[in-house]
């Protein structure tokens, strides 16, 4: 479920390169990617992570409580679509990382983009989906293929799909 060391190193690098201070994550699980990105944030940086699973979120919080970077992370518990819709429309985030249910990626994208600053970066995990986006069969295959097409055709962003791990889409807001 978790991103792991290679993608974690990429995420940390992106946070440092963009000098991000405010990060939004959709899909916390046990907190690996959140803590990895938080490590690269300045002391007053903030990361909001959305997840609907109270058990894995509480495990994540127990790791954050033991980390010198944990104070930068706030968990928002509940279905991420509801959490996003309730957020103000201000473009405050420098980076948004999508890594939750694949069927909702397009909806997350449309809700997150207005909340990203100009020049902000949207990072979406699993966009190759073990190659299944090439010949989609299951709903999750189709959802990710549709997401990739949406981003590729979107004049609001510049984008590139990295073949790191299971595919990482980068979309920079114009
Ligand atoms: C792949 S895991 C995230 C892994 C994490 N980013 C990491 O690298 O450590 C996906 C997470 O998305 C959460 N999730 C799935 N559907 C969701 C939804 N509709 N709203 C909020 N969270 C959701 C799951 O509970 C799970 O913890």
Write up this protein.
- The protein has 174 residues and is α/β, with parallel strands linked by helices.
- Helix 1 (5-18) packs parallel to helix 2 and helix 4 (80-86) packs parallel to helix 5 (105-112).
- The protein is globular and about 45 Å long.
- The protein has 6 helices and 7 strands.
- The longest helix has 15 residues, at 139-153.
- It has a 7-stranded mixed sheet, with helices on both faces.
- It has helices at residues 5-18, 32-40, 54-65, 80-86, 105-112, 139-153, and strands at residues 22-26, 46-51, 73-77, 93-98, 116-125, 157-162, 168-173.
- The structure holds S-adenosylmethionine (SAM).
- The site of S-adenosylmethionine has 19 residues, from helix 2 and strand 2.
Short description:
With 174 residues, the protein is α/β, with parallel strands linked by helices. The protein has helices spanning 5-18, 32-40, 54-65, 80-86, 105-112, 139-153; strands at residues 22-26, 46-51, 73-77, 93-98, 116-125, 157-162, 168-173. Strands 3-2-1-4-5-7-6 form a seven-stranded mixed sheet, with helices on both faces.
């Amino acid at each position: 479920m978790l991103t792991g060391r290679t993608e974690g190193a990429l995420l940390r690098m992106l946070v440092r390169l963009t000098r991000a201070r405010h990060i939004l994550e959709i899909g916390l699980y046990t907190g690996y990617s959140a803590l990895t990105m938080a490590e690269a944030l300045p002391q007053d940086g903030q990361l909001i992570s959305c997840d609907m699973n109270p058990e894995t979120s509480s495990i994540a919080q127990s790791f954050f409580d033991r980390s010198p970077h944990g104070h930068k992370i706030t968990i928002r518990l509940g279905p991420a679509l509801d959490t996003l819709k309730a957020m103000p429309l201000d473009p405050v985030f420098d980076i948004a990382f999508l890594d939750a249910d694949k069927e909702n990626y397009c909806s997350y994208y449309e809700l997150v983009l207005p909340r990203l600053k100009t020049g902000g970066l949207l990072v979406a995990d699993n966009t190759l989906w073990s190659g299944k986006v090439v010949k989609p069969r299951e709903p999750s295959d189709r959802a990710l293929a549709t997401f990739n097409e949406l981003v590729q055709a979107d004049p609001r962003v510049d984008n590139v799909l990295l073949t790191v791990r299971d595919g990482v889409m980068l979309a920079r807001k114009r």
